Amino acid sequence: MTFDDIQLHIDLNVVDGDFVLNDSLSPATLQKADVIAQDIKHRILESGLLVKLVGLRNENGIKPILTELELLIEQDDRLKPGSINIIKNDNGLSIDAKTRQYGGYHEI
User: Fold this and answer.
1) Phi and psi of 27, rounded to 5°?
2) Which among 102, 30, 37, 46 has a CA at the least distance from the CA of 76?
3) Rounded CA gap, 18 and 42, in Å?
4) 88: pLDDT confidence band, cut at 50, 70 and 90?
5) pLDDT of amino acid 100
6) What is the pTM of this model?
7) Which Pfam families does UniProt cross-reference here (predicted)?
């Protein structure tokens, strides 16, 4: 049995506060890095930091909030410290990070 065969991270898939159902109308699941990404999304939403970004146009006001977000995300011990990249673009935020168990960069 290899490390990849062990299901360390399994969770129900939640989108917009509701369970996603599969073809048999059972709750769909997420695995591996997708579980970590979902947990971090929920942590960010619950933090209230995104509300502070609404309507801000000044870089001097945006950068401290992005730093707070980065520090919040870095508290997750399933991520490699220093690997978090937050990019503010026209569509919102793009967050990438490396996971300890699954390597590579994963979009959050």
Assistant:
1) -60, 130
2) 37
3) 13
4) confident
5) 87
6) 0.81
7) DUF2590
Q: How is the chain split into domains, by residue range?
A: 3-14+33-97
The one-letter code for the residue type at 48 is G
pLDDT tens, position by position, 18-73: 899 999 999 999 998 899 999 999 999 999 999 998 888 888 889 999 999 999 99
Reduced to 3 states, what is the DSSP secondary structure of residue 93?
strand
| Residue 101: partners with Cβ closer than 8 Å, 6 or more residues away | 3, 8, 9, 32, 78
Residue 30: how many other CB atoms lie within 10 Å: 18
Q: Which residues are bridge partners to 96 per DSSP?
A: 85, 107
Report the C-alpha gap between 79 and 33 in whole angstroms. Answer: 10
Q: Would you say residue 76 has pLDDT above 90?
A: yes
